[in-house]
Amino acid sequence: MMDFTRTDLEFARELDSRDELAPFRDEFVIAEPDLIYLDGNSLGRLPKRTIDFMRHAVEHEWGQRLIRLWNDGWIHTPTELGAKIARLVGAQPDEIVVTEATSINLFKLAVAALRARPGRTKVVSDVFNFPSDLYILQGIIDLLGRRHRLELIPSTDSITIEPEAVSAAIDSETALVSLTHVAFKSAFMYDMAAVTEQAHRAGALVLWDLSHSAGAVPVDLNGCDVDLAIGCTYKYLNGGPGAPAFLYVRRDLQTQLNQPMWGWFAAKNPFAFDLEYTPADDIARYKVGTPPMLSMKAIEPALDILLEAGMERLRAKSIRQTEYLIFLAEQWLVPLGFTIGTPRQNKIRGSHVSIRHAESYRINRALIEAEPPTVKVIPDFREPDNIRLGIAPLYTTFTDIYRAIDRLREIAEQRIYEQYSAERGMVT
Predict the structure, then answer these.
(1) Over the stretch 344-364, which tens digit does the pLDDT of each residue have?
(2) Domain residues of the chain, as ranges?
(3) Is the domain covering 73-307 a CATH 1.10.3720.10 domain?
């Protein structure tokens, strides 16, 4: 870890003054300057340039061009966006397409992978995987007649997963290894290359969920020889609430695998309107239906900002900021009964930090629901006791981190959380 020694506000401001990415904060709408937003790992901020971009898309392209807009270029948007995302995650331009939702993309690719490994009966995931991913895998197993079983790699500390546990789970019966690259609770990050190699040695295919990786940590899909991947665009990619997801299929596998949802946009020639399905012979075969174009268009300006910033610079700042956050938490929060629920080693840590406490839910409410002029902080809560503090290097400042941890200390020391109910809301 970096050697931080100062816990004063002036030091945080000095760190901000030396931040070469600081100008990118001005690219985003910050409607409440006194609000500290640390939930970009759930929903990224709105880029300012998206506003004019979408006004043009609605008023000029849709409003004036009408159906002609498809041949004006909209028909190519899913693959053009995919090519930009590919630059962020180490893929070829023709290996990623933006389409459907993350869960739907997982369903398509997981079914295709299992059908490509007949006779193998095991699907490997882990106890850290996002529940929706596990539900999709369970549903696939049910749909395919319960010929497969799902084995979850355990964790001994609820923060990390040992390489030995991964090795023990992957064997000659394994058809598919489906893991989230950065765990949504603890921010534990797998060694993608090592796990992919293990799976390939056993003859299994690998499917990575990049939802907490894309735009946050460098990913090298081609360099790691990854088979399949999925990811969302509304977290670190700042594509907007519920923005369409993306999927990756390595080029040599695109015509070898057959995804199960044979929609017309996956056909070789959609506008021939053939009555028999013939799949496209490229990444397009992993589409399904007509793309939701307005929400898809909103992704593009944010991708351009990320490409301008560069993943290496973003990752370097993320490491500095998460280590600074952990340093302050160890000085101020651990003595008050908090624990750090995230790996200390930056090589296995993503871009958020989990702080754990028996009263995490009520503390989280106290952070979010504070009345002015008290500092208001927006993180999020994940069961059973995680307060997730998301670092989005494009717009998170060191001063934000200082003020957030200082506010956490105040809430704990003064037991302000006791004023709030522990009854769970619909969204936490």
Answers:
(1) 999 999 999 999 999 999 999
(2) 9-49+310-419, 73-307
(3) no
Q: Helices marked H in 202-310 — which ranges?
A: 293-297, 299-309
- Residue that is written with structure tokens 């300006």 in the block: 301
Percentages helix, strand, coil for the chain, rounded to the nearest 5?
45, 15, 40
The length of the chain is: 428
| 248: Cβ contacts below 8 Å, ≥ 6 apart | 86, 89, 91, 95, 96, 221, 226, 228, 229, 230, 231
Q: At what angle do helices 299-309 and 48-56 cross, to 10 degrees?
A: 140
- Dihedral sign for Cα atoms in the order 346, 350, 352, 356: negative
Q: Are 351 and 216 in contact (CB under 8 A)?
A: yes
Q: Which residues contact 391 (CB under 8 A, 6 or more apart)?
A: 38, 40, 41, 318, 321, 322, 325, 351, 352, 353, 401
Round to whole Å and give the CA distance between 412 and 387.
13
CA dist., res. 58 & res. 422, Å (int): 43
> Which token pair is 212?
């907490």
- Mean pLDDT per 10-residue section of the chain, whose length is 428 residues: 86 97 98 94 98 98 97 97 98 98 98 97 98 98 97 98 98 98 98 98 98 98 98 98 98 97 96 96 97 97 98 98 98 98 97 97 95 92 96 98 98 96 86
DSSP for residue 272: G
Rama region for 173: left / alpha / beta (φ>0; ψ in -120 to 50; rest): alpha
Residues marked active site are found at 130, 209, 234-235, 388
| DSSP reduced 3-state for 189 | strand
Q: CA of 280: how far to CAs of 109, 139, 254, 256, 283, in Å?
A: 15, 26, 9, 12, 8
Q: Does an H or E element contain 312, and which?
A: helix 311-332
CATH of domain 9-49+310-419: 3.90.1150.10
Same fold, 9-49+310-419 and 73-307: no
Task: List, for residues 245-304, the tens digit of each pLDDT value.
Answer: 999 999 999 999 999 999 999 999 999 999 999 999 999 999 999 999 999 999 999 999
What stretch of H or E contains 382? strand 380-382
